[in-house]
């Protein structure tokens, strides 16, 4: 725990205004420099090789020292994209191509499920993928944590319709793909330090090698478990935030008591 606290202090001390610092690629690279990326990625792939419990403790400590929920939220999402999506469902080629840049902070990761007006509900999503020699994606995604600054997106899109029932696949889309466009950033006052936005895919072409996992199974195999994983790993920053609020309250009570005396 002492080593973890020192890691957090070193990261926080890098910024003179850490409590209001907006998450960026430079912040991600500084997190990498201080050993906070690839927390659950095996050491054989360049990661930290730690457990989910250890990552929760890291999130709690990071929040306690930085007092910046936006940075910890963006960090958790980047880590989930790297571990749960790319590492768990990716093949050897995808591991070698994408994981090193995510671990170094050269690429910022984001997850693209939700769409304007419907959120993440699978019944109402419209983004489609045409699979042939390459993949052609059309649609719009929004409410994406890290969206305005991300280089790599895991996009969930309709790949087949069976008896009126939509089936989904996952695709790795980088921001240099033809037909990829950023949408305008979103203003979320409650997480101002975590950039949110959307993307537009207009005949966006990616190679077939960027299909992630098994075709037509992504919603059940990836998206549904992701909700529980996100809730679990976010407990670290939430607990750290509660500790910060408790510290503020105790200090305020102490100061008021001194004023009365």
UniProtKB/TrEMBL annotation:
Source superkingdom: Bacteria
Protein name from the UniProt record: Acyl-CoA dehydrogenase
Species per Swiss-Prot/TrEMBL record: Candidatus Magnetoglobus multicellularis str. Araruama
Every Acyl-CoA dehydrogenase/oxidase N-terminal domain range: 5-106
GO MF, one example: acyl-CoA dehydrogenase activity
PANTHER family listed in its UniProt record: ACYL-COA DEHYDROGENASE, ISOVALERYL-COA DEHYDROGENASE, MITOCHONDRIAL-RELATED
Domain Acyl-CoA oxidase/dehydrogenase middle per the UniProt entry, residue ranges: 110-203
Gene3D superfamilies the record matches: Acyl-CoA dehydrogenase/oxidase, N-terminal domain, Butyryl-CoA Dehydrogenase, subunit A, domain 2, Butyryl-CoA Dehydrogenase, subunit A, domain 3
């Amino acid at each position: 725990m002492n080593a973890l606290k020192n890691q957090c202090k070193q990261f926080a001390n890098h910024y003179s205004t850490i409590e209001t610092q907006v998450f960026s690629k430079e912040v991600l690279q500084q997190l990498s420099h201080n050993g906070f990326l690839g927390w659950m990625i095996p050491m054989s792939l360049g990661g930290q090789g730690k457990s989910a419990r250890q990552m929760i403790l890291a999130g709690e400590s990071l929040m306690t020292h930085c007092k910046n929920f936006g940075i910890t939220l963006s960090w958790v999402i980047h880590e989930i994209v790297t571990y749960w999506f790319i590492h768990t469902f990716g093949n050897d080629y995808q591991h070698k191509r994408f994981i090193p840049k995510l671990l170094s902070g050269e690429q910022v990761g984001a997850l693209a499920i939700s769409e304007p007006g419907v959120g993440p509900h699978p019944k109402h999503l419209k983004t489609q993928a045409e699979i042939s020699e390459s993949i052609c994606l059309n649609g719009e995604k929004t409410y994406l944590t890290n969206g305005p600054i991300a280089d790599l997106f895991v996009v969930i899109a309709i790949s087949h319709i069976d008896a009126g029932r939509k089936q989904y696949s996952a695709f790795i889309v980088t921001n240099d793909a033809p037909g990829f466009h950023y949408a305008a950033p979103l203003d979320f006052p409650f997480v101002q330090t975590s950039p949110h936005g959307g993307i537009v895919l207009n005949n966006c072409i990616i190679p077939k090698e960027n299909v992630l996992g098994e075709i037509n199974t992504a919603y059940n195999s990836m998206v549904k478990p992701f909700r529980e994983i996100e809730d679990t790993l976010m407990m670290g920053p939430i607990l750290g935030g509660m500790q910060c609020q408790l510290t503020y309250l105790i200090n305020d009570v102490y100061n008021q008591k001194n004023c009365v005396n």
